[in-house]
Amino acid sequence: MPGLSNIQTQVQTQTQIQTLSPQQVLEARLLALSTLELEEHVRAELGDNPALEDGPAESSATDNDEAVQDDDLEYGNEDYGSQNDGRDDWDDDDDDWYERGQGGGGPVADIPLADTRSFYDILYEQLREQDLTPRQMKIALYIIGSIDNDGILDKDLQAISDDLAFYHDTDASTDEIEQVLKVIQEFDPAGIGARNLQECLLIQIRRKPDSESKELQERIISTMFDEFTHKRWDKISARLELSKEQTDAVIAELVKLNPRPGSSLGETVGHSRQHIIPDFLLDNYDEEIRFTLNNGNIPQLHVSREYSEMLENQIKEGTSSQKAAAVYIKSKLDSARGFIQALRQREQTMTRTMQAIIDLQRPFFQEGDETLLRPMILKDVAEKTGYDISTISRVTSGKYVQTPFGTFPLKAFFTDGVKTSSGEEVSVKEIHRILREATDAEDHSNPLTDEQLSDMLSERGFKVARRTVAKYREQIGIPVARMRKS
């Protein structure tokens, strides 16, 4: 029929969208913070909210105080032990909640920290010398915290932008982040903060004095990176029309570049492991694994009794002139209660998650042998705790546990599994160990190829493809065979 194309129809559909409440957003932000970041955040909140006070709450002296006893919520330091697994009976509204939680932990060994500078300290010292705005400084600190052991930035700029917005309430564009990143890439050693190996090498080349060799090095890495990494010297020579002597000379300069500039500052999860402020302190006590949540210098908090009484007086007055004051006071009290509740929720979530990791990786925490780590993924911990996978990810990202065997990132306990020929599943850490031993003992004039390493693993009962061997080899910093040849 004519005109049907002009008929407009309205269709009503119903969709369900899950949104987070302001309290849930606050809890998620606090959960993502490290111990040091949390301390800074708590002190900032103390300065911003007069209804929030430092120190233990005053005990009520008379029955007349009953109306405000719920405001005397406190946040403090707790100890936990392995028998507290399954803390569904914890009641955040009980004033004695912390007292009930304290009985679980035994004495925690005092493991001294080395008085030397860490990877992060060295970069932070250089950062302080820069003329940056407070906003740029916040971005820079996050970037530095995202640099891996090799000195490479292992997050893309969009991911950093998303994290800054969600966890640090900073809306920064990728262009703004890249400007700050360029500042960090000027730090020493050359190559720090690069986003990949190619950029890492280019940064080092561009620091060199101008010369014909420098120009050739930059051309090779910029336009013939694949040929360089695969040692196709003949193709490089032909394309640049270089003699064999010229090619040998420029390649000799290129192989002197450091693909892991962070290694010269000490490994962040190796030599510098003891410089990190741990979020958990763990020890074996009377054959039981005990741990405490390290709250460091985080202040104890309580809601101001004075503010609570002020609100009561305003309500009793009931005059219109007092209404605005009452609304303001109530908003501050609600904010203080919400903040304390978020801190307590963080403490419970982190503690339950740590307990689940201990239960799943108990052999390691008893012996300290990384080869005893069992295959474990975020989903395993999520199922054991009842939390979402996203929550477990926030708890374990950037958090560390101090043990009698060293200080480890929680992420270190998550590992893929490899099945043996008998059907048994073992941790990738065991494959890492075998690969290290094999390459350490190999004939360096004829190093083992990935195919040979795959065959060797197969003989030991591990079915690992050549490409997977290459991935594992790269994970533990073992170069390809041609780069190991001497």
Can you characterise this structure?
This protein is of the alpha+beta class and 486 residues long. It has a domain at 417-484: Orthogonal Bundle (Arc Repressor Mutant, subunit A), CATH 1.10.10. It contains 21 helices and 9 strands. Strands 2-4-3-6-7 form a 5-stranded mixed beta sheet. Helix 16 crosses helix 17 (389-396). The longest helix has 41 residues, at 320-360.
Summarize the structure.
With 486 residues, the chain is of the alpha+beta class.
Largest sheet: 5 strands, mixed
Low-confidence stretches: 60-73, 82-116, 266-275
The number of helical elements comes to: 21
Whole-number radius of gyration? 28 Å
Assign the CATH architecture of the domain at 417-484.
Orthogonal Bundle
Strand order of the largest sheet: 2-4-3-6-7
> Roughly how much helix do the residues carry, as a percent range?
40-55%
What percentage of amino acids are in beta strands?
5-15%
Order of helices and strands: HHEEHHHHHHHHHHEEEHHHHHEEEEHHHH
- The global form is flat
CATH topology of the domain at 417-484: Arc Repressor Mutant, subunit A
Number of E strands = 9
CATH class of the domain at 417-484: Mainly Alpha
Average per-residue pLDDT, rounded, comes to 77
Spatial separation of the terminal alpha carbons = 83 Å
- CATH level-four homologous superfamily name of the domain at 417-484: Homeodomain-like
Which structural class is indicated by helix and strand composition? alpha+beta
